[in-house]
């Protein structure tokens, strides 16, 4: 994988897949057209507690049997004990890292210790600490204490909704039109201060792409990428939204021009290389990633916890 594509897990959407899918080998091998994404194989919320051990053994077989894996694959164990089993039994050379669900400060330090600093860990911010200003700061400091093992953290929207009085995202509203939006902005403040990247949360209304597109636009304005997806149609919509506009690329190149003035105007706006340089560099990097990865088509693969057509009949031709 080249330098540009190596950044996929922190820029492209991450598609969640239950570990007990009967076609897991085909998913891992890239036989299912999912779009440009990384894969998160879940053994926590997406799998019944009484089925997790069986699903873990199925995952081990799938990783061993898969003939080539074109996407980065992350594993989401249910807890620290499950992580230990996986470190002992899974082919670690085939795994990009682990996702730490319901991350706490203690769990972040514990998981990095169990992995001996050898494996990437992506904590998910979805506990009460994420709701508390002091807790947020402590979570950010814990993540920042383990570079490059922890390249960033993910935001867990549905668990945060549950903690805010048993709420659920209303239909037709972006996350930023709900109480969780304020939590995200609070997390951005403290994690940015520690230099830790944050990844955007899931939109579980996978049948409403118009709201998803509005939400992704707000994600981008906040510097959030690698949005969690639960359906390939979401992957495609998110990936397209991440592609910079030609006008943005033009402005970024003007900003990065070594002969650019200290301050200058463009299309009715002020450009200031000293302030806007980082924005320009990240935008150009996104454009390079799109050119390197392309925009493949997508078909249906759902990881919804309710009715899953893919569990009943294979929808992929």
Would you write up a description of this structure?
This protein is an alpha/beta fold. The chain has two domains: 239 residues, TIM Barrel; 51 residues, no CATH class. The strands form two sheets. Strands 7-6-5-4-3-2-1-8 form an eight-stranded parallel sheet. A two-stranded antiparallel sheet has the order 9-10. Helix 3 links the parallel strand 2 and strand 3. The longest helix has 21 residues. The protein is globular.
List keywords for this structure.
317 residues, alpha/beta, TIM Barrel, 2 domains, 13 helices, 10 strands
CATH-scheme architecture of the largest domain: Alpha-Beta Barrel
CATH C-level of the largest domain:
Alpha Beta
On the 0-100 scale, what is the average pLDDT?
91
The global form is: globular
The separation of the N and C termini measures 28 Å
Poorly predicted runs are 295-317
- Determine Rg (CA atoms, Å): 20 Å
CATH topology of the largest domain: TIM Barrel
Task: Summarize the helices and strands and which ones pair or pack.
Elements: H1 8-11, E1 14-18, H2 24-29, E2 38-42, H3 52-65, E3 73-76, H4 80-89, E4 97-100, H5 105-114, E5 120-125, H6 133-144, E6 152-155, H7 157-163, H8 179-193, E7 197-199, H9 209-221, E8 228-229, H10 232-242, H11 246-256, E9 264-266, E10 269-271, H12 273-293, H13 309-312
Parallel strand pairs: 1-2, 1-8, 2-3, 3-4, 4-5, 5-6, 6-7
Antiparallel strand pairs: 9-10
Helix pairs in contact: 6-8, 9-10, 11-12
